[in-house]
Amino acid sequence: MTVRNRGALAAMAAGAAALTLAGVVACGSEPAEDVGGDEVAALSSATPTPTPAAPASGSVPVNPGTLPAGSEIVPPVKLSIPPIRVTATVDPVGVNERTDEFEVPPSVDQVGWYRYGPGLEADAGSVVIAGHVDSAEQGKGAFFRLRELDRGDRLTATGSDGRERSYRVVAREEYRKTKIPLERYFARDGKPRLTLITCGGPFDAKTRSYRDNIVVTAVPL
């Protein structure tokens, strides 16, 4: 499956999430100040010493999403974020071939792991998990309060191997969907990190979409 263009990648960043109707709470319209952007840039530019099991350096999903060879992929299956009271099932997702959009799970209480990126075992790159902020039909999504996370907050991702992996939040950023530096967040190189993405900013009733993406970055403990 291929990510064909920048618009599709922006949609991957939870732009395909179900949207609220006008008059429903516009979550994230007044987000907290961005924190940790410099640290995220450093994480993405630092290239660890490669190992035989590491994903291919420099590969980002603007090319066909081939999985790294010679390594056992450990997908996340559960995400727990105690500071915002989130416990969510994680489903492997890709890109819809018809719409070019990131296929966030339709149930707003579930989140999606980008299965053409690194898994939890990887010693390099960004593990991307995207989720809904809310839905007109289903209400608040798993990532409704994602914008409340701050540096130092802890979260846990459980892999298909049953192992829990703990992370510490180092950054929270907001971007216009057309301006998000996707090569930074959908990357196989740089230090290992977990990237959580949802919609945010003001809600446009005409386009029935949020203007921005909220991005939270966490590093392994």
TrEMBL record:
<dbReference type="InterPro" id="IPR023365">
    <property type="entry name" value="Sortase_dom-sf"/>
</dbReference>
<dbReference type="Pfam" id="PF04203">
    <property type="entry name" value="Sortase"/>
</dbReference>
<keyword id="KW-0732">Signal</keyword>
<dbReference type="InterPro" id="IPR005754">
    <property type="entry name" value="Sortase"/>
</dbReference>
<keyword id="KW-0378">Hydrolase</keyword>
<feature type="region of interest" description="Disordered">
    <location>
        <begin position="42"/>
        <end position="61"/>
    </location>
</feature>
<feature type="signal peptide">
    <location>
        <begin position="1"/>
        <end position="22"/>
    </location>
</feature>
<protein>
    <recommendedName>
        <fullName>Sortase family protein</fullName>
    </recommendedName>
</protein>
<dbReference type="InterPro" id="IPR042001">
    <property type="entry name" value="Sortase_F"/>
</dbReference>
